[in-house]
Design brief:
By secondary structure, this protein is mainly beta. 13% of the residues lie in helices and 58% in strands.
């Protein structure tokens, strides 16, 4: 047991020293999401949610860093008055969505402390209280693709970020004539672990 523990500790130390020397950093992140769905059956307001997860930074040059992330986000939306008329098999006033998200961001380093961020985000639906009971299928597509743009401020090992994300695909899987597209403001803090 001691031998395995020492071997694991030694492996972590080797990986950490390699990561530092190669410009690879790993960290944790979390914060608030303000999301809305553009569609005829939703209130045209942002709803509050949360997100938490992690990130990896790969230094490409002094000007560019690749930052893939993996995080979970969840939000509750209010439906409009005509929602239950359009979707007669669904009688619900609040809709809950949970997504596992994978953005792949390019950081354009304007200085040592400030970076612009841009790239795609792929979301996989992991939780929803919305289903079309009579048709025995989900009303929401299992994937959401978005474009991301924002800024990130570096304060030593702490980062503060703000991003705008706009959905590119229709996430409504129940009625094709009613298009649902997501929008979100993604604000939070991240801590570089190593």
């Amino acid at each position: 047991m001691l031998k395995k523990s020492l071997s694991l500790l030694f492996s972590i130390m080797i990986f950490s020293s390699f990561a530092f020397s190669q410009g690879i950093h790993v960290g944790a992140k979390g914060g608030a999401d303000m999301q809305k769905i553009d569609g005829n059956n939703f209130n045209n307001k942002f709803a509050f949610g949360y997100h938490f997860g992690g990130f990896v930074q790969l230094k490409l040059s002094s000007a560019f860093t690749l930052q893939p992330e993996l995080y979970y986000s969840e939000v509750n939306f209010d439906t409009a008055n005509n929602f239950s008329q359009t979707y007669q098999s669904i009688d619900i006033s609040k809709i809950k969505f949970g997504y596992l998200n994978l953005p792949i961001l390019l950081n354009i380093n304007l200085s040592k402390k400030l970076a612009l961020q841009a790239g795609p985000r792929f979301g996989i639906l992991s939780k929803s209280n919305l289903s079309v009971k009579n048709q025995a299928k989900d009303a929401v597509k299992s994937g959401d693709i978005a474009m991301v743009g924002g800024v990130q401020v570096k304060l030593s090992s702490l980062y503060v970020y703000g991003r705008y994300q706009v959905g590119l695909n229709n996430i409504n899987d129940a009625i094709s004539t009613d298009k649902w597209k997501s929008q979100s403001l993604h604000i939070g803090v991240a801590l570089k672990i190593f």
